[in-house]
Specification:
Layout: E1 7-15, E2 23-31, E3 34-38, E4 48-49, E5 53-57, E6 59-64, H1 82-94, H2 101-113, E7 116-123, E8 138-145, H3 153-165, E9 173-179, H4 187-200, E10 204-208, H5 212-220, H6 224-231, H7 246-253, E11 259-263, H8 269-276, E12 282-286, H9 288-293, H10 301-307, E13 310-313, H11 326-336, H12 342-348, H13 351-356, E14 374-378, H14 386-391, E15 396-402, E16 405-409
Parallel strand pairs: 1-4, 1-5, 6-7, 7-8, 8-9, 10-11, 11-12, 12-13
Antiparallel strand pairs: 1-2, 2-3, 5-14, 14-15, 15-16
């Protein structure tokens, strides 16, 4: 993409700052990749009029698995049990005729085309497979760690340490760690990874309270997940004490530098209150269309938001979702949770995502001093509530900016 002038002002039908009300016929000024004014033109020259568009902060996909971005359709079928779907994932991984590098690159490009400028990626690959990020979304690469038995603890800790040491000071790339889930991670491994996260200053992401089968396994060590682990020769009956619950894992994660609870589909009242009390350090990542794909019980989004939980949005992956669009996830929230305000929905896909990943000081809202990562969306011609225009299926990503530069344009001028 071409270089932008050092200082530029953009006019749009609506600006969505996120941390303040929507601005109609608004102007944003950018200088050397940072926002210098919101709502006024301080560039010293006429603004570039983008017409009937919304200017949003760059969207944040707080949870995805890019290795599945080569899938044309989700694995399995809607409503299938999670253990059966996991078996499909394992078969897909074993059946690959090439490594995941091409799929990851495709997923990053797709994300950019949907206005996403920051991705929380769960990786099972070495960091070297990730392409140069000069014109791609910013990336938090969470290294997936799996080991339910004690004899796999040391190797996973070594892998985690190696992953955190691979990164440079490049502000577009950051490491994270992902102890996968309660049914695949020994409690002592989780404790070791939590201990590593603070001095390394890396966030953790853990799939937790994702399914009824997980709750059953934690409660009494039985059910389909146990059967699946036995079939995989990965079951350790001593690893999970009977009577365990997601709260036990939240208490361990609370000692980390920062923690993301992935899905949280079956959190109870006490667990929601626990997360609300730690909203600056812990967040839940809701994946609405994946939740819909598995036909889980109704998501407790309203209760979480009312309690003060930080809730971000994720697409999960193309193994359970048709695409990687955060805008489509926001529309799904609007459809499934009509009582949630447009302001809250937009925050989930922008500022709360940046906060969950530890980058809210620089990203996630249109605020003076923040980096000029933008998503520019073409709007329908109708009048009405600005947020409702965003949720309209005709609203489409037009440009994506990172650091004050256009890195994707659907209709370049």
């Amino acid at each position: 993409m071409s270089q932008q002038p050092k200082t530029i002002a953009l006019r749009a039908r609506y600006l969505f700052p996120v941390e303040s009300p929507v601005i109609a016929d608004g102007v944003i000024t950018i200088e050397q990749g940072r926002i210098t004014a919101v709502g006024e033109n301080t560039s010293g020259r006429p603004p570039k009029d983008l017409g009937n568009v919304a200017i949003l902060p760059g969207l944040v996909n707080a949870h995805t698995h890019l290795e599945f971005s080569d899938l044309a359709h989700p694995l399995g079928h809607p409503g299938m049990a999670l253990p059966a779907w996991i078996s499909e994932v394992i078969k897909h991984r074993r059946g690959r005729d090439e490594d995941a590098q091409r799929a990851i690159a495709a997923g990053l490009q797709e994300s950019l085309s949907f206005g996403t400028t920051l991705v929380g990626e769960i990786t099972t690959s070495a960091y070297s497979v990730y392409p140069s990020l000069a014109d791609l979304p910013r990336l938090i690469a969470f290294r997936e760690l799996i080991g339910l038995s004690q004899d796999r603890i040391d190797e996973n800790v070594a892998l985690a340490r190696q992953h955190t040491e691979q990164f440079t000071s490049d502000e577009s790339q950051h490491p994270g760690l992902s102890p996968h889930a309660p049914y695949t991670v020994h409690p002592q491994l989780l404790e070791r990874v939590v201990e590593l996260s603070s001095p390394a200053r890396v966030p953790l992401a853990m799939h937790l309270a994702e399914s009824r089968e997980e709750l059953q396994l934690l409660r009494d060590g039985s059910g389909p997940l146990r059967d699946m682990l036995i079939d995989l020769n990965a079951w350790d009956p001593t690893a999970i004490p009977h009577g365990a619950r997601p709260l036990d894992y939240l208490r361990k994660l609370a000692k980390a530098e920062r923690a993301l609870v992935i899905h949280g589909n079956y959190l109870d009242d006490e667990e929601i209150a626990y997360l609300a009390d730690r909203a600056d350090q812990m967040a839940v990542v809701y994946c609405p269309r994946t939740h819909e794909y598995f036909q889980h019980a109704p998501y407790r989004l309203t209760e979480m938001l009312q309690a003060g939980v930080t809730v971000a949005l994720g697409t999960d992956s193309r193994a359970s979702n048709p695409d990687l669009s955060v805008l489509a996830e926001m529309r799904a929230v609007r459809r499934r949770h009509p009582q949630v305000s447009g302001e809250d929905i937009l925050r989930m896909g922008t500022l709360s995502g940046a906060k969950s990943l530890g980058l809210a000081d620089h990203l996630g809202s249109l605020q003076v001093g923040k980096t000029a990562d933008l998503s520019i969306v073409t709007l329908p011609e109708e009048t009405g509530d600005p947020h409702e225009l965003l949720w309209d299926e005709r609203a489409a990503p037009r440009e994506t900016w990172i650091g004050g530069r256009v890195v994707f344009a659907a209709d370049p001028l």
